[in-house]
Design brief:
The chain is mainly alpha-helical. The protein is about 65% helix and about 0% strand.
């Protein structure tokens, strides 16, 4: 029963910290755009693919 006297204030402190961190994240804009990062990986990349021969040459140069 005495442990409840310690656990209740600790749980209230943790709850207060969680609320504070959530409000801090909202204030800093962490939840402003939730859809775009998930859709970015589905978009086509307009850059040309790298030349495989050039990549091999760079790899050989780095190994020397």
């Amino acid at each position: 029963m005495n442990i409840l006297l310690a656990l209740i204030p600790v749980s209230l402190l943790l709850l207060g910290a969680a609320i504070w961190f959530f409000l801090w994240a909202v204030k800093r804009g962490q939840f402003d755009d939730l859809d775009t990062p998930a859709l970015d990986m589905l978009r086509e990349d307009d850059r040309p693919a790298p030349d495989p021969e050039a990549r091999d040459k760079r790899g050989e140069r780095d190994a020397d």
